[in-house]
Design brief:
Length: 259
């Protein structure tokens, strides 16, 4: 059975609450049906109102980050139980910008993933290489290490989504070719099989490097690409809606191949 495609919008540090609410109302009209799941990750301050705007829709609420501890003297931080309380279903952990700009290590990403799971939520665990690492031929080795470290101590029974982010393709307008992306996604799937055996077949692996309407269907039609973690294109309703439609078509193609 084909995995259901998943499209997650990462708004990053964009949209005030007053800007987010009318946009969320538009997004609430989107439906993925049986073919595609949709989630929106607005900034922390917009989580509650956006979540309320999405309540009667099929669109899930996600957070962009969380702290690794559930409560305490951590001024300015937000915990996973707090995110669960406002209605989040998913939390992005280990995004390349968190790793690069805020110094998050693989071990910290692992702690955050465990905190997300402890709160009853599903992590979207990000992995990926820089341009320098790709040019040095280190992509697959690095991805293997990030997966092993990020998933250390996490059971195959835990809900999990993996997002492959080629760092060189984020916000640059560059995109990995479908063949390049599939190669890494297939490698991720193989590493998951080593860790989790048969359970690896149910884990959705998203592509997170400048996915847009023009390349979404080609990318998501690849055997091991199960959706997208969408940045800039998720801030434009028409563009994002087209990506959702591409996800639905891609799931249909895979179901036909598997029939």
């Amino acid at each position: 059975m084909a995995r259901r495609c998943f499209v997650a919008a990462n708004w990053k540090m964009n949209m005030t609450v007053s800007q987010a609410l009318p946009f969320a109302s538009q997004l609430a009209t989107l439906t993925g049906g049986e073919a595609a799941e949709i989630a929106i990750a607005p900034p922390f301050v917009a989580l509650l109102p956006v979540g309320q705007a999405l309540l009667s829709s099929g669109v899930a609420l996600a957070a962009q980050n969380c702290h690794a501890v559930s409560s305490g003297a951590y001024t300015g931080e937000v915990s996973a139980p707090m995110l669960a309380d406002v209605g989040c279903r998913y939390v992005i952990v280990g995004h390349s910008e968190r790793r690069q700009l805020f110094g998050e290590t693989d071990s910290l990403v692992n702690e955050k993933a465990k905190a997300v799971l402890a709160a009853g939520l599903c992590p979207i665990l990000c992995v990926g290489e820089t341009l320098e690492e790709r040019e040095q031929g280190k992509t697959l080795e690095l991805i293997s290490w990030q997966l092993q470290a990020g998933l250390a101590g996490i059971s195959h029974e835990s809900p999990m989504v993996i997002a492959y982010e080629p760092v060189w393709a984020i916000g640059t307008g560059k995109t990995a070719t479908s063949a390049q992306a599939q190669e890494v996604h297939a490698h991720i799937r193989e590493q998951l099989r080593k860790l989790w055996k048969e359970a690896a077949e149910q884990v959705r692996i998203l592509y997170g490097g400048s996915m847009k309407a023009s390349n979404a269907e080609d990318l998501m039609s690849q055997p091991d690409i199960d959706g997208g973690l969408v940045g800039g294109a998720s801030l434009q309703f028409v563009e994002f809606a087209a990506i959702v439609e591409a996800a639905k078509k891609a799931t249909g193609h895979k179901q036909q191949r598997n029939a």
